[in-house]
Predict the structure.
Amino acid sequence: MDPPITSCCRSPAAQAHVSPIVVDIDECAEGKHYCRENTMCVNTPGSFMCICHTGFIRIDDYSCTGTV
Ligand SMILES: [Ca+2]
């Protein structure tokens, strides 16, 4: 006799529960962001943001300044 198949993940019912997973890179943690001085890198799904520190003025998407 063949032994019983012990696969947990090959039944159609199990596959139906697999949902698409957004593969995101944490650019902040991996140092792949381009945030410059006076900003804080914030990871977002598929991208990242550079947030100005409190009191600093945004120059562009990646940098802020404390002096005008
Ligand atoms: Ca990201």
Observations:
- The domain at 21-65 is CATH 2.10.25.10 (Laminin).
